[in-house]
Design a protein that fits this description.
Layout: H1 6-17, H2 21-43, H3 46-63, H4 74-93, H5 121-128, H6 133-144, H7 149-156, H8 160-182
Helix pairs in contact: 1-2, 2-3, 2-4, 3-4, 4-7, 5-8, 6-8
Amino acid sequence: MLEKSEKEIRKLIKKAKKGESEAFGLIYDQYLERIYRFIYLKVSSREEAEDLSQQVFMKAWEAMYRFEDEGLPFSSWLYRIARNLVIDFYRTRRQNIVLEENITIEAIENSEERALKNHDGEELIKALKELTEEQKDVIILRFIEGLSYKEIAKITKKNQPALRILQHRALNKLRKILKKEQFPSI
């Protein structure tokens, strides 16, 4: 599937707001994989991630008429819905996240985080389990989903400086965890 430009997405949004289900179907096709990946990394169950992903788009379709274009990518709105559903999911189940070990992490782009790339996916997934939920959100949204601080701020309702601090602390914690796993004390 070819990625649609923001301009094309905005046209589809206008049509979907008028109730055109075909336009919303194209939006669904555009974002399903990203929303599923975000949720899967949070809940670690394919079935739950599929169910929650469907719920995201059902809620988005039901609330489409209320969507206000604030100049951010449409995905920011979808990620906020997804994040809230994951929070509700854990509230009702009161479970800890257990990430499967077959996930690979392809991200961590800028030079400060490149050192983390030297670790395999299993080590990173194990280390992610030790982060707080807020730290996981920032790491996943920033480095796996590639969102800007502005988009993450909209999703998490935190200001950008607070997100940078949260990210910095999360990366430091990941480094310590990964270093400890690499050189355990005897």
